[in-house]
Design brief:
Distance between the termini: 11 Å
Radius of gyration: 23 Å
Largest sheet: 6 strands, antiparallel, barrel
Strand content: 35-45%
Order of helices and strands: EEEHEHEEEEHEEEE
Oligomer: single chain
C-alpha cells in the first residue's frame, strides 16, 4: 500500500550496524494521520487521499477548513496534505495511517523547508571561486561581470547573484528506513533531512 505521512523532525544522531560501521541517521516522528478526504476519478479526475496532522483549536482554523472537516465529523486539524495513490481500496474516511504501514529497508522521500541562511553572497550561495588574496588584489568575493553593455542592455533573468539562501521546500529521495519504533510513532532513516529539529516534514513512498 503506497502511503504518505506528515510528522516532524526530531534530530540527527548515529547508530552502529552489525559490521560496526557508524551510520548517520535522522529520527522522524510521524503521524498518526487520519484520512480526512478521499478523491476518486469520478469526482476529481484522479485518485488521492488527504490526511491531517496535529489537532488544533477551532479558532485557529478558518470557516472553510472547519466546514471541510465537519463534513466528515473530523476534529480540527492544523495541517492537511494530499497524496496521490494507485488504489483507493484500502482507505476509508477516519482511518488512521501510522508508522505501522511502513517497513524496514523501505525507501522513502522526505520533504521539508530547508534552514534559512538569510541574504548570502555569490561565494556561499552559488559556490563561486574567490579572487586572488595577495599582490594588492581587491577582488576577493566580488561577483564579477553580470552581462554585456549596450547589447543586450540588460541582465538576463536567472543570473546567479547574491540573494536569499535556504528557506525553500527541499525533497530528499531514496532515504532508507533503518528502524521503526511503533510505540513512539518514530522511524529512523539513514542520511540527513532538510530543516531544523521540530520542522514539519512530509514523507511518501517511492
Amino acid at each position: 500500500m503506497k502511503i504518505g505521512l506528515l510528522g516532524k523532525k526530531i534530530g540527527m544522531t548515529q547508530i552502529f550496524d552489525q559490521q560496526g560501521k557508524a551510520l548517520p541517521v535522522t529520527i522522524l516522528e510521524l503521524g498518526p494521520c487520519p484520512v480526512t478526504e478521499i478523491k476518486n476519478l469520478e469526482s476529481h479526475g484522479y485518485k488521492a487521499i488527504q490526511v491531517g496532522y496535529v489537532e488544533a483549536k477551532s479558532n485557529q482554523l478558518n470557516k472553510a477548513e472547519i466546514g471541510h472537516l465537519n463534513k466528515y465529523n473530523m476534529p480540527p486539524l492544523k495541517y492537511l496534505k494530499e497524496y496521490r495513490v494507485n488504489s483507493l481500496d484500502n482507505f476509508k474516511i477516519g482511518q488512521l495511517i501510522t508508522v505501522k504501514d511502513l517497513e524496514i529497508n523501505q525507501n522513502i522521500s522526505v520533504s521539508s523547508i530547508s534552514i534559512g541562511k538569510g541574504f548570502m553572497g555569490c561565494t556561499k550561495r552559488h559556490k563561486f571561486s574567490r579572487g586572488p588574496m595577495s599582490h594588492g588584489s581587491k577582488n576577493h568575493k566580488q561577483p564579477g561581470s553580470i552581462g554585456a553593455g549596450t547589447t543586450p542592455g540588460k541582465v538576463f533573468a536567472g543570473k546567479k547573484m547574491a540573494g536569499r539562501m535556504g528557506g525553500k521546500k527541499v525533497t530528499i529521495q531514496n532515504l532508507r528506513i533503518i528502524d521503526i519504533k511503533t510505540n513512539h510513532n518514530i522511524i529512523i532513516v539513514k542520511g540527513s533531512v532538510p530543516g531544523k529539529p521540530g520542522n514539519m516534514i512530509s514523507i511518501h513512498q517511492k
